[in-house]
Structures are given as C-alpha cells and as structure tokens.
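Reopening closed ticket. The problem is back. First fold of the pair:
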Amino acid sequence: MEKLESSRKKIDVSKFMALGALLFIYIFFSVFGKNFFSSSAFVNILDSSYYIGFMAIGVTFVIITGGIDLSLGTVLICSALIGGVAHNNWGLPMGLSLFICVIVGGLFGFLNGNLVARFKLPPFVATLGTMMIAQGTGAIVSRVMTIRYPDLTSPDGWFKYAFYKTRGGFPIGIVWLVLFFAVAYIILNKTRIGRYVFAIGSNEEAIRLSGVNVVKWKTIAYTISGLFSGMAGVMYAASYTSIIPATGNGFELLAIAGVVIGGTSLSGGIGSLSGTLIGVYIMSILKQGLMSMNLQAHYQTLFTGIVVIIAVMLDIYRNKKAV
C-alpha cells in the first residue's frame, strides 16, 4: 500500500509540473508570439493534436508496463493506406473502410504483444521490426501510390465533417479525442486491465509468480496501443486526405515524447492519461508558438528534445529519491 501511495504521489507531482509547464509556455507565446492568443491559433493547437494524441493515449498503456512501441507512426500510415485502398480500389463503403483502419492497427498491436510477451523479444527490437513490416505492408497494398481519401465535395466527404471539422468549422476531432480519452481512462483506472498494466510495470516477476497470466495482459496493452494507432490513422486521413506510402517515421517519437513529458515513467509502473494529454498539448503549443515567432519546424524538434530530456532526468531523480 505504501508503494502504491508513493506511486500516486509521483503521478500527481509529475502531472502538476506538466500542467504548470503547459500554462507557462501558453502565456509566454501569448505575450511574445504574433497573433498566438487568438481563436484561430487555439483551433490550430487542437487540430495538430489529434493523431498524435490518439497514439500517445494508446502507447501510455505499453510504457506503463515497462515496454515501448516504435511502430506507432508506420502503423498509423499503413492503417490509413489499407483503409483508403479498401474504399478506392475494393469498393467498400467509407464507414467499413474506416473500421478496417482501426482493425489493421489492432492486428499490428496484437502482433507486437505476442512478440514481446509470448516470444520474449525485447520491446525495442520487436516493435522496430513491426515498424518496418507496417511500412512495407502499406507500400505493397497501395502499390507505392499516394492514396487519397474523398474531399469535402465528394459524396463520401462526410467523414471529414465527422472526424475533422463540422460544416460550421467546429473542430470535431477534439470531441473524438476526449471521448476516447474517457474510454481509455476508465480502462486504465477502473478495470482489471489497468490494474494488471500497472502491476506488470511495477514488478513483472512478482506478478507472474502470483499466478497472473502476464502474457495475456501485456498482449492486451500492446493491442490497445495498436487500436489507438489505427484510430489515429482515421484522424490523420480526415485531416490531410492524401496518405503517402513509406512515411510515418518519427510520429511515434512525438507520441512517446508526449507520454514522457506528461510524467509516465519509462521504467514502468507509473503514469497517467491526463498527464499524457497535457504532454501532447505542450508539444502542440510549442509547434504553434514557435511558428508565431517565425521560427521553423526544426526549432520545435530542438525544444521538444530538450523538454523530453528534462522530463526523463526529473523521473530518474524522483526514482532515486524514492529508493
């Protein structure tokens, strides 16, 4: 009980620090950025968080178990490519094609879970291999051609209104993100899945010796990550329309950065989805804020890297202090 209480205190401290950082950089860019404190800039912040947010929510489950998933970005693109091919080439309805996106992501997550939990491959190696498999699969299925989803003028363009922006311009993507965040929050904090995810990350060997089926629960964690990557593919398609094969590398780093900045420990056993969401918006604000100061995208990469290093150093410090 004392260890559990200590873990909860760590989560609370990390969350408040991340929230403080979020407020600080928002105020900073509002003061020094050009037209940053405006409704259009706020909508841009929301828009840039959708697909990264879905990946980050899913991979939080994996990182809490002490694992990692490097396949997120290419699985996102592969899912979107296969869903687009299903609609454009196979003639399937748009709704079913979008569902296929999610299923493809879940299958890759299930594969990752089995490679890590059942076959004992290191998560870094297993998901690195899956990353390349997903990238190759997407290119093969699409025949290395850019896949275009219906635009707003098409009869099937309804999916953009349903997942990106309504006809009135409301950023409906934030509604989907909040909805799935709530579902994931309940799973992680109110169900057996969540309890075992935290337990595995805290002490996997002790959980195994107590009779818990670690393979099952760890596979579920990776499958959840895959499903959220598939959903991120839907959001990406709704936002950008054109899906280019052999892309997606680097998306996973943004998602993992959001999780780490939000206070989830890379050593496992500690984390929160609310912290993850805060971390995602810290990166979104950094992106829009630096643009408002006429700084190019590579500055975002630079500052995101600095923030991630600081977050990891703080996590290491807290762990040493707790020993």
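Second fold of the pair, where the issue appears:
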Amino acid sequence: MEVAGVKRVAVVATGVIGASWAAYFLARGLNVEATDPAAGAEQRLRQAVARHWTVLQRQGALTPGASQDRLRFHAALEDALVHADFVQESGPERLDIKADLFARMDAAAPPRALLASSSSGLPVTELQARCKRPQRVVLGHPFSPVHLIPLVEVCGGERTSPEAVAQAMAFYAAIGKRPIHVRREITGHIANRLQAALWREAFHLVDQGVASVADIDTAIAHGPGLRWALMGPFMNLHLSGGEGGMEHLLAHLGGPIEAWWQDLGAPSLTPELRRRVAQGVEEARGECTNAALAVARDDALTQLLRVKQASDVLD
C-alpha cells in the first residue's frame, strides 16, 4: 500500500517509541524495515507490536492491507534503509548519538527519502549538521503512546527545505496523525513546553505543601484535564467567556490571570522534592501495577478517540 508516496518506512531504534511507531505504520498498511543494535531487539519489537495490535484493532485503526507480516528486522542499519521511502528515527535523546545516526542514515537512504527524528527536544539544525543532504532532515516528534495519540510536531532546521516540511506534514496527515508545524526551532518544541509549564507548578505546589501528589493528579484528571482532552486552552477559554467569548473573558479575568502568572513557582528538583514526589506516586498507585495502569489508560484513550472522531467539531 502507498500513502502520500510512501510504501516502505524504515524505523531506526525500536525501544518504546520506535516499537509504537512500527505498530502504527504497519496498521496503516505500510511495509516496515526496522533496525536496532541492542541484543534481543527483534524479539522485543515483535512482542510490542503484537501487544499494540490488539489496541489498534479495538480502535478500528487497521486499514486494508495492514499486517504484522509486513515487518522485517535488520541487524545492520544500512540494510533497513536501502529501499526506504521515509525514515523515522527514535534513538536515545543524545545529540552525539543522533548526529552520528543521521550522518549514517543520510549516506544509506535513497535521495528521495525524508529523514525524521522523534526527538523530544534536540534541534534539527544540529541533527542535520553532518548530513550531505540536510535539506531532507525534519523533526517528527510524536507523543506516547505513539500508536494511539495523533499529535506529531514537525519542524525543519536551518538547512531543511520547505518542501521537506510540507511532505512530512502531508505524510503524517495521510496516515491519520494530526501534524502541527513548529515554525521556529525552540527547546522542547511546543507540547512539551506546555507540559513543562504545568509540571513546574505541580512540583512547586508539592514543594510548598499546598497539595499532595494525589490531589494534584485529581485536580487535573477530574477538572481541566477533561476539557483539555476535547479542546485546547484557547478554545476552552473562549467558551468560558460565554456569548462574549475570548474578548469578554480577557476583559474580566485578564488581570487575575496575570496575577496568577506572577505568583507561579520556580522549584528546584532537590533530592527531598524528588523523594516526596516519588513516594506520593507510589502511595497513589497503591497495588495497581504499571502494566494495569497502562492498559486502563489505553482502553480509555481508545474510547475517547472514538468519541472525538465521531464529532465533526471535536475531531
């Protein structure tokens, strides 16, 4: 099957993110050539794909031609890339490792293939520095679990061509993702910076003894998080303004919002704060295993995505 000119995707590094990407690409009917130098990587990849497949089936994400049999594993990176139309790299978040990977991928992949990185914060400009064809290097940053969450952040570096960014956006959209264009390189991209702002205040509130870990999670999961799952912060603010919308809300709450901004904390991750947060998570988790939490999360995500996809407004 061909999607936006892509038939074969090479997945470089098959840890948590890479394996999730591989399952999703297979679910969209694409051929996947995977590679990872770690011992036992192929077995772990196939097991992960099989686990994700069940969730993807429940979500209705399998397209005609989708098959786990389309997955091939290669010990050598060069063998995985030789016929690739698109490359998705998900290696360790270290510049030295990724820069070396991109130099090797650039040498091995056909000239037509785009090279995308799942990096959560590294700048594309530095990833493409040693490439002979830097114009085809882009950011393709997903969110975990990749096989369920649609968002992909796309960005180019200083030497990335506008055509490459446009092609990456088109490809991700064609396979059912929701790509957004990061128009300027910035540490952490967009969504991670928004998350970091919330994490910062959450840690501050624990540090100051304002709330427990469990209460903060409850405040988000059973409060604004429910609305955020349906609409973003600006549209939610707009609706909070009633008939007057955003202009009415800012006219009445702009001052208080600025006051809250000025009072937000700037905590340091001291050993004591780390201990308190980790202990709070363990207490809140109780006897529920991480595996059980992940299954419950994925089941709920699947149902939520169905609801959003069924809406002409919320999807």
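Update: turned out to be a display glitch only; the data is intact. Residues 128 and 134 are 5 Å apart (CA to CA). Residues 290-309 form the longest helix (20 residues). Please close again.
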